[in-house]
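Quick start: what a row looks like.
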Amino acid sequence: MWDSPEEAEQFWNLYRVYMDHRPTHQAVVDDLVGEQVVLRWAAEGAYVRLSRDGDQVMILIGPDQVSVDELVSAFEE
C-alpha cells in the first residue's frame, strides 16, 4: 500500500516500463479500450501480473498463467 493513489500510479508506471524493457517477457494484451488496471507479461517459465486499485499495487509472479490466476482467485475470496 502506498501513501496515496498518485504514488501507487507512479510505481505502477515505473514497473510497467521496467517490464516492457525486459527482452524475455512479452506483454499479454486482451483489451486496448479504457483504463488498464491489470497488465501481464509472459516468458518461458514465467508469468507476471501487475494490478492496481487506488493506493494499492499488486505484483504476482509465477511459472505460468494458470498458477498466477489461481493466486488471483485466492486473493479475491
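That is the whole record. The mean pLDDT is 90. Residues 5-76 form one domain.
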